[in-house]
């Protein structure tokens, strides 16, 4: 049918153009294409997180994403969450990592805002003060209730993006908007294909994270085909594209009230 051919050609064109843009970004940064060993890759602070000592009396919650290590960074990102309560002088960092332990949930695996094996992180959520203080107990509970603490699959999930998406669903106040190239964020078991999107507000239909549709307050409209997402961010106008995540103005969910 003609309409099916048009949709197929359009989908392939978006895939190729998005991948080309991702490759150009990687070539410019030099991270994904150098063949650098993970043991030698940069992991120092990116100087993005606030000083927890200077802001010791302020509760803070932040979420970061960075391209995954090596050539995989052409396709997907790795996310993590950091937080501290009022009165604390250090951040706690949580994420899912596939190697090194039977339990894939890691606490303080590296610096709060450290380069992810050579890739500079991007801040996507920043809540401070009373808003952050109110959500931290729910975040801690969500970490404990993650359904797959001993399972990791790069595709279609569960993986590091599935973990952050779980926290976002459990804590809608976080207003989490994982980018379109956060492969695994839409993973859902076959027994529960319908529910909340990662932002915790809206609706998502997803079959194992390989085919689905998301209508979310933060995500806008997003279609998932074989784990590759494309759509439109309505709230903060931009295109949501595979490989590159977002085409349009940058977006950081913030609440910096005291």
TrEMBL record:
Q: Which Pfam families match?
A: DUF3750
User: In terms of domain of life, where is this protein from?
Assistant: Bacteria
Tell me which InterPro entries the record gives: DUF3750
Q: What protein am I looking at? A: DUF3750 domain-containing protein
């Amino acid at each position: 049918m003609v309409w099916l051919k048009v949709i197929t050609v359009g989908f392939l064109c978006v895939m190729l153009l998005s991948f080309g843009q991702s490759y150009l970004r990687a070539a410019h940064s030099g991270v994904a294409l150098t063949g650098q060993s993970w043991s030698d890759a940069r992991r120092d602070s990116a100087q993005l997180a606030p000083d927890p000592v200077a802001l010791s009396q302020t509760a803070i919650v932040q979420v970061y994403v960075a391209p995954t290590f090596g050539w995989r960074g052409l396709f997907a990102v790795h996310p993590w969450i950091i937080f501290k309560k009022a009165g604390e002088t250090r951040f706690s960092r949580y994420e899912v990592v596939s190697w090194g332990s039977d339990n894939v949930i890691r606490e303080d695996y590296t610096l709060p805002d450290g380069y992810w094996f050579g890739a500079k992180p991007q801040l996507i959520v920043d809540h401070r003060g009373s808003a952050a203080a109110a959500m931290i107990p729910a975040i801690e509970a969500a970490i404990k209730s993650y359904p797959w603490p001993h399972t990791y699959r790069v595709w279609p999930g569960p993986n590091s993006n599935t973990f952050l998406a779980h926290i976002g669903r459990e804590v809608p106040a976080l207003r989490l908007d994982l980018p379109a190239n956060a492969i695994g964020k839409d993973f859902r078991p076959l027994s529960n294909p319908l529910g909340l999107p990662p932002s915790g507000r809206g609706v998502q239909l997803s079959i194992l994270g390989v085919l689905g549709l998301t209508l979310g307050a933060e995500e806008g409209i997003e279609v998932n085909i074989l784990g590759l997402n494309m759509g439109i961010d309505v709230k903060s106008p931009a295109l949501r594209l595979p490989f590159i995540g977002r085409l349009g103005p940058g977006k950081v969910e913030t609440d910096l009230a005291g």
